[in-house]
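User: Predict the complex.
Assistant: Input components as received:
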Amino acid sequence: MLISLPSVLLLSAVLFAIGTWGVLARHNLIVVLMAVELQLNAVNVALAGFSRHFAGGGAAGGLEGGGPTLLLASGGQVLVLVSMAVAACEVAVGLAILIALFRWRQSVMSPDMAELRG
Amino acid sequence: MDVLFLVAAASAVFCSLMVVSRRNPIYSAAWMMGALASVAVVFALLQATFLAVIQVLLYAGAIMVLFLFVIMLLNPTPADLAREDVPAGQRVLATALAAVLLGVLGWVFLGGEPAAAPPFADRPAPVGFGDTAYFGSTIYDEYLVAFELISLVILAAIAAVVLVGKRRLLIGGIEARAERERQLAQARARAASGPEGRGAERTAAEEEPVHAH
């Protein structure tokens, strides 16, 4: 009885909070980028959980199977696929910027780039 | 199944904590693979089998390799890593903010309607939900435009990576900036002299290095 919507959402919230901590409390930009990936993954877990929730027919909370609702449910999984593609692009661009910054400052620590502050 | 979910969830949380707490990014990347694999197991338990496979292929196979490649390329020395010392104030503030975020998310997710949702086992999904055939027909029947737009996003990302990677364009140091300013002055001179001022433009271009010195 453990695999239910609340437990999946709780896992997602915990992963997202850990990712947020990593973004806020680290100086190493590589790790910050990984923490952003962690946050995206947490959102994907929530999306997959909701998708499974709305796919289930019968009991309260879910809508009856078939028709537009089922489409909506699998739409959650399509959204996860889109999110993964965007995450891959984001990592590619982010790491390219990181290498450019490293060429500039010989460092990947955020305090060394303080003059990028607005 | 429940035990498997518990193990996968605990593993995902533990690995994530290790990712953000390791000092050396190589260890972070190694723990990140564990976290991503655990999330793939969670996907599989949510009957998103295709997503579970894609998670392993795309994240562990492509993104993490990219991360490891960059870490090895930059090759941080122990002296670099020692610069990680985040001020205590920032650490405390980050922890407080993350805790507040977790509290709000938990309140929203567990306090309202979703908390009353029955376990997934009681409400079976339709046969084939989440598998490749189902997924493919959903994409190509209903979300074709969004799916095709992904390719545009990827194309834009490729162009951006090439642009950022060009050494002279972004990080050329002082020479690049000086050259850019020289070109700007040339363009201004050309615009000021009008269409017939070919000679004036040439003199402006030749004068510019003298001014720079």
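Chain A has one domain: 5-112.
Let me know if you want any component modeled separately.
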